[in-house]
Amino acid sequence: MLRLSPRRAAVVVLGLALALGLLLTQLDLRLVSSQAMTIVAAETVVQVPPDDPWSDVWEQADAVEVPLSAQQTSVPKGGGSIRAVTARALHDRDRLYVLMEWADATRDMSAIAPQDFRDAAAVQFPASGVTSVPFFCMGQADAHVNIWHWKADWQADIDSGFVGIPEAYPNTAADLYPLQDDPDFYPGRAAGNLLSQTERSTPVENLVAGGFGTLTTAEKQMVGGRGVWRDGTWRVLFVRDLDAGGDAYAKFAPGRTTNVAFAVWNGSKDERDGLKSVSQFAELQLAGKPEAPGVRAGLDRTLVVVIILVVVVGMGTLVVAARVERRP
């Protein structure tokens, strides 16, 4: 029978505990953890229409209800009129499709008048290369985020044509504007400011941020999508290639898991800027075989469980042996 002095047994037990801790850290496994909300992007061989959020193809995607709350972290604080959003996701190994759905009794698609505010929605991901979960409100300096922001007024520009001041206020009197076709008189458009454009190809703005006050239009605008309001419900679809290139943008791959957060603005409740409904980060898992498995993906989880059990049993045996040694 193994007989160790209490001191030696204590040293061995401490060594095994440290080894177990290192193993769990290396594999990013936790013995006790809270249950994370997971949205699974199933792999589909059926073509997903990029301009139809009400397509029947979404019947094959699992729906997850994500709770929302008012934004209470940064000024202006408030919002929260939308209490939950239903999220779905699909991928076809080339593109990721994310669908948001929520109840809204009014369709607010204009922000021309100073008293009008648009409906809007956004999804947020950690930027490529981020090793920790960022702060859910715009990330932080050492953990940037990539945000896709759909705007209902941009959607109206695409669906119905751009609406300016003359269309919004038909009885307004205006003086003659000289050289109205000269781009030098439209510095916002000449500078590429997306808010100044009158012709749009997508209702979604691609943004990057690394903390409050850093939200910036991304250099690449490659996120597509469409929002359609039907019978008191918005459905907004976001579409992007899995790999957009560059560390500033989120990167996706079959078999990998990242994080995702959601935000909704209700225009009829005067929500804009920080006045909105937001969620915490949830997990977004792209179903499929990993393309480049690492240490964690390559090690069979059954073997990990066996190793943990052996270590725990060994520690228990040594403790019992030490107690036996103490007996006269």
Q: What does this entry look like structurally?
A:
By secondary structure, this protein is an alpha+beta fold. It folds into 2 domains: 1-35 and 293-328, no CATH class; 36-171 and 198-292, Sandwich (Immunoglobulin-like), CATH 2.60.40. The protein contains 6 helices and 14 strands. It has helices at residues 6-27, 152-160, 165-168, 187-190, 295-298, 301-326; strands at 38-43, 64-67, 69-70, 84-91, 95-103, 120-126, 145-151, 204-209, 216-217, 224-230, 233-241, 257-265, 277-278, 282-286. Strands 1, 2, 3, 4, 5, 6, 7, 8, 9, 10, 11, 12, 13 and 14 form a 14-stranded mixed sheet that branches. Helix 1 (6-27) runs antiparallel to helix 6 (301-326). The longest helix has 26 residues, at 301-326. The two termini are 16 Å apart. The model is unreliable at 25-34 and 290-301 (pLDDT under 50).
